[in-house]
Amino acid sequence: MSAIFRNLLVMRVQGGSLELSTDFFSFFCWNSPFWNSSVTLSSSTRLVGYGVTFGSVGALSKLCEEGRLDEALQAVESMQQQGIRLSTNIVHCLLKACTRKKDLNAIRRLQVLIVGSEVDSAAGLHDHLIRLFASSGSLLEANRVFEKVAKPSVYTWSAIISANTKLGQGERALQLYHKMQQSNVKSNKYIYTAALKACTETADLTQGRLIHGQIVESEFKSDVVIGNTLIDMYAKCGSLEEARKVFDGLPNQNVVSWAAMIAGYAQSGNCRLAIQCLEDMKQHGLKPVDVIFTSILAACSHAGLVDEGCRYFKSMREEHDIIPSIEQYNCMVDLLGRAGHLNEAEDLLQTFQSDIIGWRSLLTACR
Q1: Distance (Å, rounded) from C-alpha 141 to C-alpha 154?
Q2: Would you say 313 and 297 are in contact if contact means Cβ atoms under 8 Å apart?
């Protein structure tokens, strides 16, 4: 009987009959020898874990792919209730589904399935859970997962430091970074990047310089991503000289490098240097992106450079095929309003669907 069942289930899964195959699964398999059998659903779905094969993983995968995560979790929960051991293959299937859906309750259910099971100590599972909780906005639960890891790997440290940085807990991220160093775990480029972003968020220039010194002594001293993050950190912390030194020291500046440097000059009120940096970038054969024009237009607005601002705004469409965003239109309204060109600012507001910022800029200029 189990051989007949296996063949029917395989035929229905491969033929796309998911509804019938899952009904078959629910009706038949809990007390069937099928659980201790090896079933090949396709060349890539023969999945065996810890001595037990979960032959229905093809049906489980289909449920996950179709967004029916709740049904997939119910099937696996029923499996565990029957005393059938969990495999890493099943867990990874559910992890992928949770990553796509970002359903916090589903992630919690998956964590319950994992904790205390045979796969609880499998490499990388806790890293996945940390990222899942963080991406769903639950940093508290991400931190709790981390705290239960006896000996975090560099990937686990990377996951938790990045999670805290992304969710606005820069100080906590830096505390974790220093704790990692004390445990003699060697940093990777992702940890350095997250730690530098934490310094930017907390405006901690001292820590930023300390981490920069460690990077210089590492294999990542010429990494362009880390270099760009350093430029951004120094510029936003008010040290444009150090930002420029890092910029000039990069073996190859990309668009992100130039954008970070231009934004640094613009935010500090050095409009002329921001414009010169943009022109130098174009001389190097690189095409500016929209975020660069946002920096330039904002700088022109604060410096009162109406002609330059209008010229760059016009060049977005005519020279670079960039459709201005609401933010860039608002910069132009602010530029014209600050310069006393109220009629032009109001006319411009009528040409796009502005948010409250554009109208507020115009009303402020009318005072």
Answers
A1: 20
A2: yes
* Cα separation, 265 vs 285, whole angstroms: 21
Axis-axis angle for helices 69-81, 88-101 (nearest 10): 150
d(CA 109, CA 273): 54
Picking from 346, 338, 352, the residue whose alpha carbon sits closest to that of residue 271 is 338
Lowest mean pLDDT among 56-70, 97-111, 172-186: 56-70
Summary mean pLDDT of the chain: 80
182: which 2 tokens? 């004390």
Long-range pairs for 108-112: beta carbons < 8 A, 24 or more residues apart: 108/141, 109/73, 109/77, 110/73, 111/145
The β-bridge relationship of strands 52-53 and 48-49 is: antiparallel
User: Residue 48's beta-bridge partner residues?
Assistant: 53
pLDDT band per the 50, 70, 90 thresholds, residue 305: very high
| Model pLDDT for residues 113-150, shown as the tens digit of each residue | 777 666 656 667 888 889 999 999 999 999 999 998 88
Condensed to tens digits (0 to 9), the pLDDT of residues 10-48 reads: 444 444 444 444 444 444 443 333 333 333 333 233 333
Listed range (62-71, 267-276, 315-324) with the worst mean pLDDT: 62-71
Dihedral through CA 149, CA 155, CA 161, CA 165, nearest 10? Answer: -140
Please report which confidence band the pLDDT of residue 88 belongs to, taking 50, 70 and 90 as the band edges: confident
